[in-house]
Amino acid sequence: MNKKVLSLIFFIMPICLYAQEFFLSLDEAVELGCANSEDLQTQEIRVKAAERKSGNSWNAIIPSLNLSAADTVNFPSKNLSSDESVNSFSLEGSASVSIKSDLLNMVSKSKTDFEIERMQYLLAFYGVRKTLSDSYFDLAELKREIEIKTEAAKNLEDIHAESKAKYQRGFLSETDYLASKILSEKSKAELSVLKLNFNQQLQSFKQVIGLDPETEITMQSDLAEIQNAFATSYKKSKAEIESAMQTQNFPEVRLLEYQKRSAEQNLKAKKTEIFGPEFNLSYNGGPVFSYPKTEDTGRFKNSVTARVSIPLDSLFSTSKSREELRDCKDEIAMVSIQLENKKKSLTLELKNLMQQLDEQSAALRTYSQLLEITERNVTLCQNNYAKGLLDFQSLKNASSEYLDAQVEYSSKITEILKIYSAIEHITAKRIR
């Protein structure tokens, strides 16, 4: 866990304790969620374990050392020339080392296993990051919709009050008066449902990022500001993303490449197990003492043993080892197929996402223009309605069009933000 996340947690803890309200940005929410993710914590432990194993892979050639002592007493018997017992003491040390013919392959395999765990952590990290970002975008969009409909409900309430006054003076039909009341009450009911949904989703999000349910947080609702920040960063990193697409340098592809290499190393290890010899060198030595003294007293005994063992399973074509050898070859073939398919699918997916981003960005400009037009239209209709130059139904239609334009504009921005998030996930390159 980096220093930035720790400082963020220590900053938030007192706020959580006193249930104060604070602003939670997108980046802060993602960092808290990643720090609170059980999957990432578990994967981080696995990466460290694989790194230790890789660093200790050369320990296979470190000699095994042993020290032993023995005290032997031979009691008098008819086989002894003396009535005295013989007490002998020996101290012996030994060192042995075994070297397999696939030692270098084993060292290389441990490094590959570490890279596999590292790639899996990277994929898990960007997977969690995408999930958290998309959840934040959904909450921000829902909050923005609440703001839009809160303002719309207030305007409809004002229109209803004005309609009531006109109805009482006889300038408005009862049908239009009741329609304005129904519309006002309906907007309030819809707003209550939206707020309820938002609070439920917000509580779930707090749980995911590790915040106390009582903690009051304010989230960014200006989706256009978030989208502009993404768009600026995307322009700077677009060339790098296109390069990754050309070279197919994706984390999922690299993971499969490492898994293929691991399968090839397993095959090599299995071949060595079937055909390869094993070398063992051992040394034993130490002094011998006895009482009463004998010819061996004080002598230093030592011996060196060299041993070579060769497996003979390869003589039998139906042996279990040969079946395991075929399994290793099958594993290589399956991973190779997955690798080629993943290269094609991710390249196509990224290409489609980048194309969608261009199309949606162009569509957003159209929605922005529509939003400006409907806003001017509803303002004009409200003024004319107040002057008695416009009927209620026309005002209702204009208000509805403006409301829909605002919601659709926010929804379109959320779609674009999720495309950015998906590109980050595929390439493992942070855009913002």
Can you describe what's shown?
With 432 residues, the protein is an alpha+beta fold. The chain is 69% helix and 13% strand. The protein has helices spanning 3-17, 26-35, 38-55, 103-168, 174-209, 223-247, 251-275, 320-386, 392-427; strands at residues 21-24, 64-74, 86-100, 216-219, 278-291, 300-309. Strands 2-3-5-6 form a four-stranded antiparallel β-sheet, with no helix packed on it. A hairpin with an 8-residue loop joins strand 5 and strand 6 (300-309). Helix 6 packs parallel to helix 9 and helix 7 (251-275) runs antiparallel to helix 8 (320-386). The radius of gyration is 38 Å and the shape is elongated. The protein starts with a helix and ends in a 5-residue tail after the last helix. The model is unreliable at 5-19 (pLDDT under 50).
Average per-residue pLDDT, rounded, comes to: 84
Radius of gyration: 38 Å
Report the uncertain regions: 5-19
Structural class by sheet pairing and helices: alpha+beta
Largest sheet: 4 strands, antiparallel
Please bin the fraction of helical residues: 55-70%
Query: What order do the helices and strands follow?
Result: HEHHEEHHEHHEEHH
Q: How many distinct beta strands?
A: 6
Shape: elongated
What is the terminal separation in angstroms?
20 Å
Write out the strand line-up for the largest beta sheet, numbering strands in chain order.
2-3-5-6
How many helical stretches? 9
% residues in beta strands:
5-15%
